[in-house]
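Exam review. A common question shows you a sequence with its structure tokens and asks you to describe the fold in words. Practice with the pair below. Do the first one on your own.
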Amino acid sequence: MTSLKLLPLCAALVLATGCSQLGVKPAQPAATATQPQPPAVAATPHAAAPAPDAIDPASLPKQPLTPDILFKFLVAEVAGQRGDIALADATYLDLARQTRDPRIARRAAEVAMFAHDQAGALDAARIWAGAEPGSDRARQTLAVLLLGEGRFAEAEPVLRELLKQDTATGFLHLSALMGRVRGSADGVALIERLAADYPDLPEARIAVAQAAATAGDNGKALAALAEAERLRPGWEPAALLHAQLLDRTSHADALAFMQGFLAAHPDARELRLAYARALVNANRLDAARTEFTRLTRDFPGNAEVSFAAGLLSLQMGDAATARDLLAQTLENKPRDPNAVQFYLGQAAEQLKQPDVAATHYARIEGGSYLVPARARQAALLAQAGKLDEAVALLKATRGENTAQNVRLIQAQAEVLREAKRYPAAFAALSDGLKRYPDSADLLYDHAMAAEKLGKLDVLESDLRRVIILRPDDAQAYNALGYTLADRTKRVDEAIKLLDKALALAPEDPFILDSVGWAQYRAGNLARAQDYLERAYKLRPDPEIAAHLGEVMWFRGQRDEAGKLWQSSLQNHPQNEVLLETLRRLKP
């Protein structure tokens, strides 16, 4: 249950002494994700000025501490501690209206925001700002709440006062704030009026741009950014927003703009980082790697940069460079060390260092990389001839949730299947289904294991259950349809299932292959060849080549079939389906 922080006991004791003033600073509730936060518009420092939240005792209302006030105060705090936020909210608002004390009004505003009571929070913030007119925090909170409610006319004089304190910083925070409230023409007009008083301030122009962008007016936003860039050439915040706006309509235009900006301002590190990320999104990996490699020199202690550069190097096959960059990332204290250890393991595997890879995987003890790491450890053990150790490792691992535990069972079956221990793989999946009987993933794998053992009744039962659990699972329809076409005489039923699979995934080459094979089994050779040629064009897989060649063979296109098989066999000399087809048709 959510509760508010109770005031310390000593504070209650101070109240109980009967002083004529409330001599405590109200405690703040724990922050929540939905609680509005005031913009941090800092006051200009001044040697003789009090701290921003300090209250001049002489300005406080002469409010005696009556038993009624003390009682309500304690009721509100105890209610918050016990999770009765509504009671705490109502009681504090009543106290704020009764006392007009800025400390109580501030607490009332905080509790009301915590309770998502926007009207109450606004009422309390008005009292607070009125009772403590010199408080920037009170004005900030009031401005946030007014803007959130779309009360732009009321917010305007409050914002004008705040902007007088630190104009440039104030506009930047105002810009960020307008990005969080719903854009509207009135909101844009408000920012334009505020910015008009500061025609030579680039921060004012970027605030207009942000407001216009939030309202969907890209033209006005880009015009304001052009003015900001004229006033302060090479200013990265304006350039970053400019690139984001261009990216809304054209990734190419955004990339071209960033490239041009970096040519003119090569030391713009933040924009270079954005450019590198955009290159990754555009799948321009060579260029992205170049940028990230430069950024590792510009930001030598930045774990995010070295991690991205390492991943790009790994993806491009440069495992040695990836290893060095990922090791550097670990030294820079990354947010997720497990991810770095996992990809260090991947780099070690590419470098043919299985023992080093296993060491990295073993260092992962939790999180989303736990199961992939244990699966790779098990695969390495199995490749080293230690299959029993591999299975034992996976059995001993405990996932953090059901999804991870299901994946561990699948990993057990995978290593057993790779070792051609089909009965053991089937048994592992059968045991898993006792724990998770409605896992569609386990049911699917169990069906595939059953097919290896000729248990077609089990396969059909499992796949029909998957279809019930996941009615849009194209692969379940495909697997069942293909098996019925290939292993039974229920070809008409198979075609209906495969038509459903094709409707769900019309460009899937394996489904096209299944449809073609079912048409072949039904005697429709021309239609079969059309589907199989489409499938092979999308993916030149050896099993698709085997099926297509067989159809061509029986259509009298034996030379073409032989060339197709020979070409596929060169790339896949051990494929069982292809070899079996050749043995059967070309003895």
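Now try the second one, then compare your answer with the model answer below.
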Amino acid sequence: MPRIPIPRTRAGRWTSLALAVAVLAAAGLLWATSGPPPSKVVTTDAMIPVPAAPNSPDRISIDTTLYQPENTPAPAVLLAHGFGGDKNSVAADARELADRGFVVLTWSARGFGRSGGKITLNDPGYEVADASRLIDFLATRPEVQNVNGDPKVAATGASYGGALSLLLAGTDKRVDAIAPVITYNDLAQGLVPNAATTGAAAGTPAAGAFAAGGVFKKTWAGIFFSAGSGAAASGNPGADAPESGQRTMESGQAIGAAPPSVPQPGGGPRPSADPCGLFTSQVCQAYTELATTGKASQQTLDLLRRVSPASVTNKITVPTLLVQGESDTLFGLDQSDATARQITAAGGKVKTIWYTGGHDGGKPGPQLRGKIADFLKFHLTGEGADPGTNFSYDVQGTLRANGTPSVRTVVAPAYPATAERRQIALTGPEQPIVHPAGGNPASVSGLPGLNSLSSSSSRVAGMFGIDPPGQAAQFTSAPMESQLLITGGSTVKLRVNGPPGEAVLFAKLYDVTADGQRTLPANAISAFRVPSLPGEVTVTLPGIVRPIEPGHTLRLVVSTTDQAYLSPDAPSVYQVSLAPGSTLGVPVVPGTQLGTGWPTGQLIGIGSTVLAAIVIAVIAAIRRKRSHDIDPELATTPLVIEGLTKSYPGGLTAVKDLSFRVEPGMVLGLLGPNGAGKTTTLRMLMGLITPTEGSIRVFGHKIAPGAPVLSRIGSFVEGSGFLPHLSGHSNLELYWAATGRPPEKAHFTEALEIAGLGSAVHRKVRTYSQGMRQRLAIAQAMLGLPELMVLDEPTNGLDPPQIHQMREVLQRYAATGRTVVVSSHLLAEVEQTCSHVVVMHRGQLVASGEVGDITAAGGEASFRVDKPETAMEVLRAAEGVTDVDAEGQVVHANLDGMPRADAVAALVRAGVAVEQAGPRRRLEDAFLQLVGDSQ
């Protein structure tokens, strides 16, 4: 999460987590888009009767909307919604496709929205059969292109809807093309995965082991179940609706629609205390079994197999576009990999796209949605360029500009294809790891559905990738000599020993920088079960796309727990080692780079407009007004203040229309008499108070309370706030730990050397003098060597030697390209320390610029010469020069606008050697002239 204030109490954290999960449960796995609706799309609502069950005379109604483009007849697209949504969830997508010339049919799947029936998880006899009835309906519509009763029709959708399109293509030959998005191949492996095999994994880039006896993915499964069981609480108005509901037509929109909780004609809410909600008893029983035992019986496996696309992919031969997300802890790249292999083996043509989003990373953006539409257009009409069967994947850079990572797209000839695997040596001894009783405490690898938020907040990222001590074994590679682009799932062979029986373990692959900072790409982990100990298994790690930069290392971590999965209750100890001769097989897929760009449409919300607003509201309540405003042109500029004003009730204006700019490498002094507004300005800069008008930008990011860019600032503004009962060193360690960054990035040694506290750093802070507290506060501001450091009166309480040391430290600090802003009343120190100054008076800017320019502004100059008398005669003769006098070898004069260089030139022409020339005034003189001697 982008720098949100994490609750400090355990209860607060659980409350925040519960809110996030509740929102996800409400939003489900929807695939929604935004944008203005086309003006010429006409919609028709209809309740279409379908059998309540296979071979049943009873009927339920399916709520549909038909989107008709301007020109018809046209090819049709069945657009299915995600789990927990309804037809309204994909309304914007439908209009977008209709605007591209398709007739689009959306519907609420049984159990959702106003449709009747119960949820069977895309059972071929129920939801898939319903979709076939919808093709029957399209065949009767004059708007749809039709050849001898066979409509030209494609199917698409995301997640739950994507699986429906695959199942439909495998059972109904009238489907001409499909484009499933971020969906699954095998729901058993999606919810109960096992990434270990005693045989060999497939050679494709992201192949998973897909072995039996998996580990229950409890958090994601719980979100699914909550989205379905929660439907009973709000009712299912369509369950008792008439067989054919009212049809209405209105240009531009469907009328008569309302949120699911609002009773509609022909039906009303159905309050229910049934814990199964709107799931069938079979689905409910399967979930209960998994949630309580962590294992799937054969009956549950048969159910999950029946409702999985894997049951029909051997019958799919129509052109298929598989779009899968690279940031997806629910349905990873291995699911798309399996589907691609199976359809290709059946004789189908497959085009595969991996993009930077997913269930954790966001929906496809406009560009990708355009590619999906182009694919369907070509295969339904023959229009446009042949999209082919190539494979493209997005590579998200590890470096960021303005908080946004760069993205480039690489295209390879085809998928599936045998991946080249680089063998990377790992080192590490056999290590004992403990599985605690009840699986608690557990490792934290991510928060399903919200993982992408951690990438922009060091504080939240620090909460992820946590492995409790003693619960994880680690194996590390040598530093990379050149960039290694991982494209898919790596493999490694492990040996596991322990008490007789089985072991449940979790493997993950970290990217580790040279200074030890770990990143878990896509928060992805592989759960696996070793069925018999001791045993050797080949583990297929999660599919990722990640450039590992030179100097970085790969770290394989094998842990006994993960909070997203259900672990065994019994405590145990295992010994984990690399199998003899085992290396890390890293997949590499060479290709042609199409270009670079910045990702767009990577939105966290995956629900409809209303539900997205709920997500935003919940997150906004946690974040406390986080700022998203970024100016890319100022990405390298440390500080820009424009029109800054801060007023208080009663007519007091502390700062008025203040504007100035600070460039990299500056040491800027903020000067002004008491009450000038200096501290108020710094408090606004640190996000401690909010401006009345104007803006502050740090590296292009607009400052607001809790803004992520504040992590790039080190500050001492509000006072130290140290805990008196702890030592100085402990206070610094506690502060740094709260930032969530690795201890090795703190640079404690440098900071403590600056503080100059000596052995006193190990004493309790309550024994410190004011000067010692001040030095400790300065050391705290410098922890992590921030890019911008802001200090308010840093020399208070320091003695002259310490002030001199501080001067040298700040100058050296700025020489590295970093920037320092310092407020001080010691003008002589500012003059010797700072390169630039900003002078404030009564809240307003009165002067700014280089120190030399400010001191020279009055025109008084001094020249050290070899012939003082001659120099005085030359200067007196110059036009406008006054007040010429001498002190020894130094001649002073008021040049009154004459450039100092011209005066030097005149002296040299007269045969006077000028050893030194500069302003006569000190900064104090200039300051007093600017703000008035009375101050």
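Model answer, second protein: The mean pLDDT is 82. The first helix runs from residue 10 to 27. Full marks require stating both points clearly.
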